[in-house]
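Hello forum,

I keep getting stuck at the same step: I have a sequence, I want structure tokens, and every attempt I make locally crashes halfway through. Rather than fight my setup again tonight, could one of you with a working pipeline run this one for me? It's a single chain of 300 residues.
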Amino acid sequence: MNPSLEGYATAIFEGADRATLADELAAVERFVEGSEELRSALTDTGLLRASRRAALSELLEGRVSDEARRLASFAVSAVRAPDVLAALKWVAHRARSGAGEQLTLLGHQAARQRIGGYAAALFESMGASDLEEAEDQLFRFARVVEANPPLRAVLTDRELPIPVRQGVVDDLLSGKVEPASLRLVHFVVAGGRPRDFVGALDWLVERTAEARGWRVAHVRTSETITDPQREAMGTALARLVGVPVELQVTIDPDLLSGAIVEVGDLRVDASARGRLERLREELVPAFPGAERERRGTGEP
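Reply #2:
Ran it on my machine without issues. Output:
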């Protein structure tokens, strides 16, 4: 199964009522399988993964627990469209039968993807300041391990049982870092490759920084937006990117109308200025003489 989904599911399972969660996930699977329209939409290769996730999350709102809704919605976005039903079946089965299962050792890239999936589940409930704190704590612990050969030897020794290595982490970090940071380091031990311990921590630091960037939506708008408009925009963006977002709004009359929204590396230009520029780009190749004339007059 998809390593990212395995990591995400592991985080959701921690502390959850596995039996109830398994029943809910099985019900979601039957719900999707029994609705031809929904099944067709979720297995449509032309539909963006984020759109799949948003659509199912909205449908399940209030019908199942938050854990079941989050896990099912992530599952349909983590895999290729043809594998959506298999992913839903897998999470339901894993919830029912996976208690106490030890994670198998994966290759380098797959192990990091699994860690990334686990982290994604934790990041969803963390604000920008929490993520910044976790980023700093993970970075500092990576440097401590890197600078201490005996400690590094212990934490990278695959012959030592996972609980033993996690116990060492507890001795060093328990009560000194935020609970989310400790959970992340625990999972690097359990779900990563032992020899890649420091590298995986550094990789996780980068993912945490990226997640912090995705928490803020930079909005340039031609005029002041009302509170209801701000709320609606925040809700729509959260569904699109999969996490709550904080709006930072700047008024820019040069946009003429509409807005430009940037969240992480996602950019949506719905401004009149942007539409005019795109229209000009489309027209210029069609009328090359007009482009020469425009350059001759010195127009921008």
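DSSP finds 15 helices and four strands in the chain. If your local run keeps crashing, start a new thread with the error log.
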